């Protein structure tokens, strides 16, 4: 029962992380415009994402435009494109492998072993996808913070952390947590299998003890 609860919890957490990864990859709120100094009246907000940048004017209308070329992006956003696509594919693959591992609940000894390998593979894929997602999110966040406190950068070019980065951290944590849950489930299956198929210890019964005693008495009388 505990193993079944671990499976369901791992699949739910992994599904949340996978959906969050897809959302982060498509969201334009990676880098948002920073309003500092004496700029009180705000007329427009600038969003910069992996695929497009948007301008929202006075909370009324918003215009988005896809980047004309990949070379127009900064190096951190260029690398983030590939890493986030890889993380999305890995999270989806891990989710599908986890579903395949959950289909058989009661199997023979060989099937239990195969199930453990499938669940372990899903857990490792979840952890790998979470680590791949953390790299671009932390990289972009570090670049934004460094430019914000850099006095050589123009005030109009400074940005703040967008909502996509915070969601990316949460999604990566969910993916890593799901991988840890599935790895723990694989460990529990290994212990259960070893315990279930251990050979029982046979103790001599009372009749066997009497039979051996009679045989030993008969042998001594024959010898005499």
Automatic annotation (TrEMBL):
GO terms for molecular function: structural molecule activity. It is a multi-pass membrane protein. Gene3D superfamilies: 1.20.140.150. Its main location: other. The keyword Transmembrane helix applies. It is found in: Cell junction, Tight junction; Cell membrane. Pfam families: PMP22_Claudin. The keyword Membrane applies. GO terms for cellular component: bicellular tight junction; plasma membrane. InterPro entries: Claudin, Claudin_CS, PMP22/EMP/MP20/Claudin. Keywords: Cell junction, Cell membrane, Membrane, Tight junction, Transmembrane, Transmembrane helix. The chain crosses the membrane at residues 81-105, 117-145, 165-185. PROSITE patterns: CLAUDIN. It comes from the Eukaryota. Claudins function as major constituents of the tight junction complexes that regulate the permeability of epithelia. PANTHER family: CLAUDIN. Belongs to the claudin family. This is Claudin. It comes from Fregata magnificens. The gene is Cldn8_0.
């Amino acid at each position: 029962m505990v193993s079944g609860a671990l499976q369901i919890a791992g699949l739910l957490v992994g599904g949340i992380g996978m959906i969050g990864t897809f959302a982060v990859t498509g969201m334009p709120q990676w880098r948002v415009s920073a309003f500092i100094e004496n700029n009180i009246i705000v007329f427009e907000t600038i969003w910069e994402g992996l695929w497009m940048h948007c301008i929202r004017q006075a909370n009324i209308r918003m215009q988005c435009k896809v980047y004309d070329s990949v070379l127009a992006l900064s190096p951190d956003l260029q690398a983030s494109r590939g890493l986030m696509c890889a993380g999305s594919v890995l999270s989806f693959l891990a989710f599908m492998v986890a579903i395949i591992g959950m289909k058989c609940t009661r199997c023979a000894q060989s099937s239990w072993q195969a199930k453990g390998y499938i669940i372990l593979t899903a857990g490792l894929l979840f952890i790998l996808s979470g680590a791949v997602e953390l790299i671009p999110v932390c990289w972009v966040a570090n670049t934004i913070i460094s430019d914000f406190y850099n006095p050589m950068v123009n005030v109009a070019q400074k940005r703040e952390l967008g909502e996509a980065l915070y969601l990316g951290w949460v999604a990566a944590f969910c993916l890593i947590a799901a991988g840890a849950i599935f790895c723990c489930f694989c460990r529990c299956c290994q212990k259960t299998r070893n315990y279930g198929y251990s050979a029982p210890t046979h103790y001599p019964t009372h009749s066997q003890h009497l039979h051996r005693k009679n045989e030993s008495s008969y042998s001594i009388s024959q010898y005499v």
